[in-house]
Design goal:
Blueprint lengths: L1 E6 L8 H10 L4 E4 L29 H10 L5 E8 L5 H14 L4 E6 L4 H6 L7 H17 L3 E4 L4 E5 L13 E3 L6 H8 L2 E2 L8 H11 L5 E5 L5 H9 L4 E5 L5 H20 L1
């Protein structure tokens, strides 16, 4: 099993490239950046983490700018989105950004994707929360057409274009791994329809059972990665036994001295897991 970390790349904390370079030097396999274009100052959408939303949610750099900085600072590390909010993005522009980062990094991008939880945020982008999942699927299939066709076309309910040229194509074929985030009752529909894998946040209640359920439903190989894993050797053992490809933990946003403390705890858990 591989190991990685997630990070909110805020403008007032350690730079994305610095974090990437340091976690690569310390042997991590991947680094994932969170994305929020903004946070509405007034909202009704509830955050699962509690009543107060941390300020890092509205202080992040642009996702693909941060990924470019991380890719340029490293040579081996896989860099990815945890997750890219596709329902808030133009698919033609996003396809270009994904392909560009993957090409410039030599094929090291992993594309975690999701619809998000903040309905006011997506509404500010013109997305109707009631139809966001249909929109999500169309935008993903449209991007996959752009990545694989010299002259791409797409006709759908929400996305329509005819005969477009868009280069570069991704270095990874047919595209960077598309890891579908989310934990809701319909997430497996999206994974099985157009995803390359499932990318849930850690849940110690029924995650292992749901992984087994997905394996039973799949008719092709699917990669499972888990984000937000606690620094607990027993949790790592359980995930490995379930066939998880990579376990990643969240690091705090702040100066490197703050990040390093949490990273060292994660490394100790990995070390203890490796000795069992």
């Amino acid at each position: 099993m591989e190991f990685g970390v997630g990070y909110f790349p805020t403008h007032d904390a350690a730079r994305p490239g610095e974090v990437a370079r340091r976690v690569e030097e310390r042997g991590q396999d991947a680094l994932f950046f969170a994305e929020h274009t903004h946070i509405p100052a007034s909202r009704e959408s509830q955050w699962d983490g509690g009543p107060g939303l941390p300020r890092k949610y509205w202080h992040t750099y642009d996702l693909f700018v941060a990924l470019t900085d991380a890719a340029a600072a490293t040579s081996r590390l896989r860099v990815g989105s945890g997750v890219c909010l596709v329902v808030e993005r133009d698919p033609i522009i996003t396809a270009k950004e994904v392909a560009s980062v993957d090409h410039l990094s030599g094929g090291r991008l992993e594309l975690g994707v999701g619809a998000g939880w903040n309905r006011e945020e997506m509404a500010n982008h013109g997305t109707d929360p009631r139809t966001r999942m249909r929109l999500f699927g169309e935008r993903m299939r449209a991007m996959q057409a752009i990545w694989t066709s010299e002259e791409a076309s797409f006709a759908g309910e929400f996305v329509n274009f005819e005969r477009i040229w868009s280069w570069p194509k991704p270095a990874q074929k047919p595209w960077p791994p598309v890891l579908v985030g989310g934990y809701g009752p319909t997430v497996f529909d999206r994974v099985l329809a157009w995803g390359d894998g499932w990318f849930p946040n850690y849940n110690d209640q029924d995650l292992l059972a749901r992984i087994a359920e997905l394996r039973d439903k799949a008719t092709r190989p699917l990669q499972i990665q888990v984000l937000g894993v606690p620094a607990d050797p027993q949790a790592l053992e359980q995930l490995e036994a379930a066939g998880v490809h990579r376990a990643s933990t969240w690091l705090p946003s702040g100066p490197w001295s703050v990040i390093e403390q949490e990273l060292e705890e994660w490394e100790r858990a990995i070390g203890e897991f490796g000795r069992r």
